[in-house]
């Protein structure tokens, strides 16, 4: 009885369910209850409309999973495009009609989704700024340019990845909106007297109620009075009125601050992100402050206030603000999504474990006790009926642990505030306890200076005291920015894994961050990924779902392994059971079992314990203390390495503000990109700046920067720095330098080592596997791969490495030197071998791409040959050097070319018209004549192509091609019959390509062999076989040179095309 256009929200509505039950009861006697049934039907119809209207008002419904929907895909079929546009406009009109339905007519909406905020994040803005989606988009465009038909499987694979990434991001937005709505509802539950209070249209979460001392004091007083509401009714009402007034004041202050900032900086009004200027904390950003000071100084001169330099500075400030806004929006979205994921997994968790402290700030994922409880809960949930009581008890323990961590965080924050009263509770949205101020030497030096001023008396030097406190707040802001940058780096790395594995719902598996799971180094994960890419290319839905299921199980298995390893490490190093922030969240990040010093100390400790020493003996306790000190040193080194990598990435984003967010240090080495940035800056500095031209440059910068995401040079640079630092330590030890000097060098070496590990892991996560999906072969599951080849499974690379002199030299060094597996030299050599194989593998891929592009060009140029794709270049027949073939091609083109002579072009015209030569009439300058001529050419074009002369010429070309192929085949067969001992050379090369008849060494050996074979008794003897082996060695060496030269030429061609896409395939025929 409901409306026809209904959704599942109608089925969930309890009012409708009750009406349906009532109607079924009335239908037992339809004659007597006819009028009542009609009334119920009418109510059902109206109620269905109300519920459906409310659902539409909450936002645009998500598209079904099966639809391939891109916002930026241009449809080829105009009629289909028009039809879809009309359908979309009709749907939008229906949504607008639903939106203007009065609120009071909708009735009570029970569906919990009805509480979503009215303005959720716009999906298109999130999708368009997503680095992985941008990378896939550029890759898809490049494949389309190379040839849609040739690259159809790869394009299908990429587009499916884009669609699933889009679904991931939209799912995240729904989670973020849900988390926002739940937080608003929670605040209203905490402060019900604020329901309906006008706060300038701001959400209550934006007012910072829990951080306002006056508001919290009033709330505490109200809580005491509310214990006896009847007795304290009047005082309770007065307190609630005061709380409402204070909330209104806070809202007015927020609105006033925002209005003041927008008035002060009107050029920042329209940032491309939904964020307030006050949330950016621009006054704490040194780069922005410097630009603002220059702009203010410039604007003091009225003649220069609106000039080109002022506009350039405004544009630069806008770029800085845009970058900061993007970071703020992304951090906020990820925090909301993480909060929602935690609530979905653990509904028992509180919204705030402590007043003013959110779930994501207490470090649940990093806490070993919480992880242990979570794993226990996962095991119990396997049988929820049987383990109901245990599940309830464990959930209470989970909640209690979260509250305990929240209380500890709040207590640490309050303690820091007492120590540094000049700092607020949050510094640029970061809790002051998270800044680790006690470990910062610069901050502590300023604190000592301030303490001295305070000790001298409050009136001794107030100006210097104020300046010092300003410096302290500035330093705290710098530390807060560094803290946020490191957090963003970690979440970026987690998201990079999740983006490339769209079957993962969150950035952790079993509370292990995805960046630590290291699935990109796991052989079985690679096998499943290759299967998945193959299924994506074929559009095999069942194959995709099966590969996804296998990968999910593998991720869980790897995460379980990390969990057990972390548990083992904490037990071995004495950190089990407590969350020590000085040790950080995860010991497995530090690679403790690979540190030579730690391994030696552990061996000594195990030796003492094995000899019967007590765990409380002084020797054992001393060794444990030394191990802890070394772990602390490694943690400090790791933190420093993480900060340096983060700073380098932030610096790259400042140098190239228009490039992709997922920057790579290789951008600096690209001359074209640097030239684009200089051109952009010059264009902005011009008096008549062409903003459209600037936008075109920025788009090209973004597109070009995508190609550097997978660049590995940063890994090689980090490896080189680590090798140099390790050598410096060895030299200092050999020279018997002071212990302090060696300790400093060791710290630098450890930092370099961790930087290399971070860069290597980062680039491994971003390695583009789509180029290798076609290499998948059935039976790869059973292939066993050695440690040095786990990342590089292609056969071509392994063949090259077996012949590569540098790889063989590294292998010899590793075999010759008796190195321990945990020694830096051993790890360095192993890593250098892996990097070399990766280089060779990349060269193989680039050579394949270059060869495919040549094949595609030849296929387009000589389509009338009807030769299968790949046969043109793989046959390696130089048909374009054959004069007869090229003569026939030129004759065919001449038949298709429009004659230049007027009478030849238009033979139906007379030579003279009314005694005037047609050459004197200027027909080709007449617009009407030329238009008719063009229409005639359009009609004649297909006729010329289909003419008998052209068909005959194409037949002759095909015959000549067949003759060339036959000649080449016969030549190769004759050579192989003549020299059967050269049949199986270890390279993919034809004998005719070696030109052995031109090699003096081979010719001399061949002459000796021929003379020897004239004697039947010696033809198959030892000397003949020796000569055959010698000729085979010569041919093998020449073949290796030919293959290597061809591969290098192809790699160099591909490098040129990547750097300069505008280059032609052949500069001349």
TrEMBL record:
Keywords: Coiled coil. The keyword Amino-acid biosynthesis does not apply. Residues 624-651 form a coiled coil. Residues 198-255, 272-331, 350-412, 423-484, 986-1045 form the DUF7623 domain. InterPro entries: DUF7623. This is DUF7623 domain-containing protein.
């Amino acid at each position: 009885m409901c409306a026809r256009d209904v959704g599942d929200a109608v089925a969930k509505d309890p009012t409708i369910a009750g009406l349906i039950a009532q109607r079924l009861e009335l239908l037992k006697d339809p004659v007597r209850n006819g009028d009542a049934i009609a009334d119920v039907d009418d109510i059902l119809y109206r109620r269905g409309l109300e519920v459906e209207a409310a659902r539409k008002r909450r936002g645009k419904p998500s598209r079904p999973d099966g639809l391939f929907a891109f916002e930026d895909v241009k449809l080829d079929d105009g009629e289909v495009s028009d039809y879809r546009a009309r359908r979309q406009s009709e749907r939008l009109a229906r949504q607008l009609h639903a939106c203007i339905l009065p609120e009071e007519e909708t009735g009570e909406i029970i569906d919990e989704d009805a509480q979503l905020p009215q303005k959720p994040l716009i999906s298109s803005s999130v999708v368009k700024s997503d680095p992985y989606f941008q990378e896939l988009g550029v890759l898809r465009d490049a494949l389309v340019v190379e040839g849609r038909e040739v690259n159809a499987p790869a394009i299908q694979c990429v587009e499916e990845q884009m669609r699933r990434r889009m679904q991931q991001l939209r799912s995240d937005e729904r989670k973020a909106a849900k988390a926002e709505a739940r937080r608003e509802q929670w605040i209203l539950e905490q402060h019900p007297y604020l329901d309906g209070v006008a706060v300038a249209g701001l959400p209550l979460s934006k007012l910072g109620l829990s951080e306002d001392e006056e508001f919290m004091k009033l709330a505490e007083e109200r809580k005491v009075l509310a214990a006896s509401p009847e007795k304290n009714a009047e005082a309770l009402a007065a307190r609630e009125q005061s709380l409402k007034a204070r909330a209104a004041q806070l809202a007015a202050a927020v609105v006033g601050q925002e209005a003041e900032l927008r008035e002060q900086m009107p050029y920042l009004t329209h940032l491309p992100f939904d964020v307030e200027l006050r949330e950016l904390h621009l006054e704490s950003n040194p780069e922005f402050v410097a630009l603002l000071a220059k702009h203010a100084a410039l604007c003091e001169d009225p003649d220069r206030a609106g000039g080109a330099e002022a506009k350039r500075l405004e544009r630069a400030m806008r770029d800085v603000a845009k970058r900061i806004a993007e970071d703020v929006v992304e951090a906020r979205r990820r925090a909301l999504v993480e909060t929602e994921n935690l609530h979905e997994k653990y509904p028992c968790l509180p919204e705030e474990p402590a007043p003013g402290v959110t779930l994501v700030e207490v470090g649940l994922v990093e806490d070993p006790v919480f992880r242990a409880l979570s794993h226990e809960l996962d095991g119990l949930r396997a049988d929820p009926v049987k383990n109901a009581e245990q599940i309830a008890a464990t959930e209470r323990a989970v909640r209690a642990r979260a509250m305990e961590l929240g209380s500890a965080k709040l207590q640490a924050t309050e303690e820091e505030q007492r120590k540094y009263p000049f700092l607020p509770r949050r510094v640029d949205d970061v809790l002051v306890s998270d800044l680790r101020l006690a470990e910062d030497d610069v901050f502590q030096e300023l604190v000592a200076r301030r303490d001295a001023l305070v000790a001298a008396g409050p009136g001794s030097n107030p100006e210097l005291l104020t300046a010092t406190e300003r410096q302290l707040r500035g330093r705290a802001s710098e530390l807060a920015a560094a803290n946020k940058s490191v957090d963003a780096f970690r979440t970026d790395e987690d998201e990079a894994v999740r983006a490339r594995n769209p079957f993962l719902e969150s950035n952790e598996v079993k509370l292990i961050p995805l960046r630590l799971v290291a699935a990109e180094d796991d052989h079985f994960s690679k096998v499943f990924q290759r299967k998945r890419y193959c299924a994506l290319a074929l559009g095999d839905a069942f194959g995709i779902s099966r590969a996804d299921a296998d990968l999910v199980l593998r991720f869980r298995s790897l995460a379980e392994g990390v969990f057990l390893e972390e548990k083992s490490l904490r037990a071995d190093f004495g950190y089990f059971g407590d969350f020590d922030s000085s040790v950080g969240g995860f010991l497995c990040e530090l690679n403790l079992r690979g540190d030579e010093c730690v391994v030696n100390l552990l061996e000594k400790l195990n030796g003492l314990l094995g000899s019967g020493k007590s765990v409380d003996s002084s020797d054992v306790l001393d060794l444990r203390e030394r191990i802890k000190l070394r772990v602390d040193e490694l943690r400090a080194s790791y933190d420093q390495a993480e900060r340096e990598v983060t700073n380098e990435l932030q610096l790259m984003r400042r140098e190239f503000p228009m490039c992709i967010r997922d920057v790579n240090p290789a951008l600096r080495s690209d001359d074209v990109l640097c030239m684009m940035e200089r051109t952009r800056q010059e264009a902005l500095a011009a008096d008549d700046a062409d903003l459209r031209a600037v936008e075109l440059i920025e788009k090209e910068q973004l597109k070009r920067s995508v190609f550097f995401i997978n660049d590995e040079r940063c890994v090689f640079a980090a490896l080189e720095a680590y090798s140099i630092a390790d050598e410096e330590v060895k030299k200092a030890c050999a020279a018997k330098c002071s212990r302090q000097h060696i300790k400093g060098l060791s710290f630098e070496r450890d930092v370099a080592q961790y930087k290399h590990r971070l860069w290597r892991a980062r680039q491994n996560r971003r390695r583009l596997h789509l180029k290798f999906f076609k290499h998948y072969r059935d039976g790869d599951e059973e292939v066993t791969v050695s440690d040095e080849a786990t990342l590089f499974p292609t056969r071509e690379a392994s063949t090259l490495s077996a012949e590569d002199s540098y790889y063989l030299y590294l292998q010899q060094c590793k075999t010759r030197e008796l190195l321990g597996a945990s020694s830096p030299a051993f790890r360095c050599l192993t890593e250098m071998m892996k990097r070399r194989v990766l280089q060779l593998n990349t060269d193989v891929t680039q050579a394949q791409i270059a060869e495919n592009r040549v094949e595609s060009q030849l296929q387009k140029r000589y389509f009338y040959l009807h030769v299968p794709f790949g046969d043109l270049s793989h046959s390696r027949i130089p048909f374009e050097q054959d004069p007869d073939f090229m003569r026939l091609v030129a004759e065919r083109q001449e038949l298709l070319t429009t004659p230049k002579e007027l009478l030849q072009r238009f033979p139906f015209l007379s030579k003279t018209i009314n005694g005037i030569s047609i050459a004197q009439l200027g027909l080709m300058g007449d617009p009407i004549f030329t238009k008719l001529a063009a229409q005639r050419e359009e009609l004649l074009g297909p006729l010329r192509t289909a003419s008998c002369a052209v068909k005959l010429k194409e037949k002759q070309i095909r015959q000549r091609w067949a003759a060339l192929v036959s000649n080449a085949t016969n030549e190769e067969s004759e050579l192989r019959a003549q020299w059967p001992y050269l049949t199986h050379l270890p390279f993919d090369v034809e004998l005719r390509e070696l030109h052995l008849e031109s090699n003096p060494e081979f010719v001399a050996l061949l002459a000796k062999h021929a003379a020897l074979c004239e004697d039947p008794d010696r033809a198959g003897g030892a000397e003949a076989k020796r000569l055959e082996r010698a000729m085979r060695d010569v041919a093998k060496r020449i073949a290796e040179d030919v293959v290597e030269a061809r591969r290098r030429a192809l790699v160099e061609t591909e490098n040129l095309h990547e750097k300069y896409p505008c280059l032609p395939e052949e500069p001349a025929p």
